[in-house]
Amino acid sequence: MKKKLSAKQKKDAIFIYGFLAWPILHFVVFWIGMNFRTFYDSFFDISIVEGAGVVYQWDNFDNYIRVFKIIFNKAPYDNYDLSGIINYRAVTNSLSLIPLALFINMPLTILFAYGIFKKVPMYGFFRIALFLPSLVSSVVLCMCFQMAIDINRGILPEILRWFGLTGARGDPANMGIIPQGGFLADPKTCWPMILVFSVINGVSGNLIYFTSTMARLPASVFESAELDGASSLRQFVSIVVPMIWPTITTMTVTLVAAVFTWIMPSLLMTDGGQWYSTTIGLMITQVVKNDMYNTVMSAFGVIVAIFGTIIIVSIKTGMEKLFEGVEY
Amino acid sequence: MKKLLSILLCVAMLMAVVGCKGNGKTSEDSSNGTGIVPSNGKTISVAALDKGIGTDWLKDLGKRYRAKYGTTISVKSSSTLNESVTQQLTSGEKTSDIYFTFCAPLEWVTWASTGAIVSLNDVVPEEKFRTPITYELGNYNNNKWYLPSFYAPTGIVYNVDYLNELGYNEFPTTFDELLTLCDRVRESNLTSLYTGQKVAPMVWAGNTGDMVYMFRSLWSQLDPEGYKAYWGQTDANGATNEANKALLVNESTETVLARMIDLFKPTSGSNGTYSANSAYGSTGFSNIEAQQSFLEGNALFTVSGAWFETEMKEEIQDYDETKFSFAAFPKIDETKAASAAINLPGEHFFISANGEHNDVEEAKNFLRYVLSEEGLAITHNAVGIPLCYKYDESNLNLNDWGKAVKAVNDAAIGSVNGSGSKLYLSGVLTLNLNNYFPNMALAISNNNADYTDPTSMLNALYQYQIAAWDESVGKVQ
Hints:
By secondary structure, chain A is mainly alpha-helical. Chain A has 13 helices and two strands; from the N terminus they run H-E-E-H-H-H-H-H-H-H-H-H-H-H-H. Chain A has a domain at 77-137 and 189-322: MetI-like fold (Orthogonal Bundle), CATH 1.10.3720.10.
């Protein structure tokens, strides 16, 4: 027999479903709807036909073929004077952020968090100084970095000049290790400098997660480790890392996922992206901004979603298998 | 008592609102031949791109229009309008009534096809346009969708004092003379008053490709018909057509690139190749940085356009010791007239079909005023840049910069990188040269092209163009 809801239960149901209605609608429109439309558009070519307006034409998998041509450097596909940002470097640059995040940013963040947890000298200062960049706008941070490496006014060229690694200011014949036009103008040094910026900037944001996770670790474990004569390094490797491994896994997944939407430093430091500093996110954003009917980018988005999911799930599964979760 | 006071206050406020009718003139007032009938307190909003030329001239015109015709013109300036205009016009929301911005051809063709903008056939008659190409731009499907604005020539901005110190009264008019001048600068002891650096012949924007103005100007100077033929091509199968290739890869374009390599003068140094005629950092400068370096006195000349004075007005005040003027690009072929690449398509006027005040006719009236004899003269006086229409330029009150720009415009043949052809509107013909010039300056060779060899560069450029041909050629049909 169907149970009749009481008045209170009906009120509760209305409240709960009403409360959830907006986020569900938001999810349906901005996730399901947008992704479905992206997938749908990726099989069409859109043109403007005189007298008929915007026309959709079935394109089979041609857009996907074009995407693979871009990825494997068989076609530049830049029709919007965007300085060639549609090219294979978008993929290689974006993918290079993954090892940077996993093997440099993450370890550095954990090490700094451990130092703060262990209350090294001046840990209070480090806790604030390392966290401050996450409070500052990324636009300001990019500008500061650009100014610091500017060949005419920056502090880095002055330091290099002091060490004799570059010539006098204004002497293009003797620039030493500084490329002509500056670090951000040379294809060989532009992306590495952006990676340096990413390392400097990347430590601050995630620091608080690790410091708060470490703060929850039981003190008794560390006390007994010290009684057994374990050094700080041994405690870090054998106790801290395994115990905070779930947090490390979560942050790793977040960092890797962010790689595919990473655009700001390239956009801000190279005035909209040069071909050597383009990324997947920047390329898609800039192209669609100029041509909202570009379906090649729709196909690109679908391919990135598929391969990105495979990469992220593989990393997550691999990391979960390394250490089992520790209950405490 | 309190109630009575409240009522009296409400009545007083109501009467104040009723009293604010605006100062609309009666219909007996003259429309000054523009055909505009004074309104009765209407409002029109204008979203204007605030870059380079700025928007003060437009706001001034708005105030004048209000004084004459009673309509309030509300100008909203934004330095990033070009990035958001597509979203605004296609969002379905109410938008500004008029837009003043630049955009890619494919963008406005899309807006026109989707009904986001209205046609402007009845705003300015064809005979009022300065040249046939200025009329042709903005046409699609037998309608006019935008009205161009400034007819800004590009050219050389040079330091008058440095030039005089080297014994010159005017900037060189031929390319060989320019190269000789560059040699003289390198051999001289000129140093910048502001930075103390040795003065280089030129400073340029390697990061934003401003040297493409020189390329276009020199190409159109050498081969004006060939230049027009390239931008006006209509063969949709051009990617496989050798005759089409010859429109880009030919003796004229090869000569231009060869001469530009001579100008850059790539030289081997102790730490690799550098450009002997370029100021420190040129290959990586944005246009603003290059212009600022010029104002700091680091170079004799820079490549820019008629907008230089307006764009750099604050920096000019900071570096007021630097006296500058404007000249046409020196000629390669001395038997022909000089040519100046015009910055067209630049910013244009559009009228939204979904304007917030729902008054397309009044929006058109404002544009009729802006592009009337009076409006054009006021604008030219204000910014020192000619406009794309015919008007009386003999009585203008221009400063030295404005006079120099006008002299270049009058003497040089203007060339425009655009046409009404569907290939051009599709975005196939973009001449993506931006990355070429830094590589030419440093004599780079790589898998794509040998930047010491003009033929190799042009072939690479052509390959780049046809690689994306099939994808784009059908975009506008």
